[in-house]
Design goal:
Elements (H helix, E strand, L loop, with lengths): L4 E6 L4 H12 L5 E7 L5 H8 L3 E4 L5 H8 L4 E4 L4
Parallel strand pairs: 1-2, 1-4, 2-3
């Protein structure tokens, strides 16, 4: 099988983003894998996603450079943000 396409998920440790990450990772035969963006990669929620095989990347919406790194080589993105 070809390498899986990355879907970068901002808000990955929240309810909506976390649900999406878990759904992507549960579809082992699918075309996609998840990259979880989080401000704190050492949080319990981030570690739980990592245990599923999810790539965890430190990123903050207030830090443009961290977002550029986090979205690097991603095929798509799902962004749950706040106002």
């Amino acid at each position: 099988m070809a390498e899986k396409k990355i879907i970068a998920v901002a808000g990955a440790t929240g309810a909506q983003g976390g649900g999406l990450v878990r759904a992507i990772m549960a579809d082992q035969g699918g075309l996609f894998t998840a990259r979880a963006l989080t401000r704190n990669p050492n949080s319990d929620k981030a570690r739980a996603l990592a245990a599923l095989g999810t790539e965890i990347v430190q990123a903050d919406v207030d830090d443009a450079a961290s977002l550029l790194r986090a979205f690097q080589d991603a095929h798509g993105a799902y962004c749950v943000t706040f106002f």
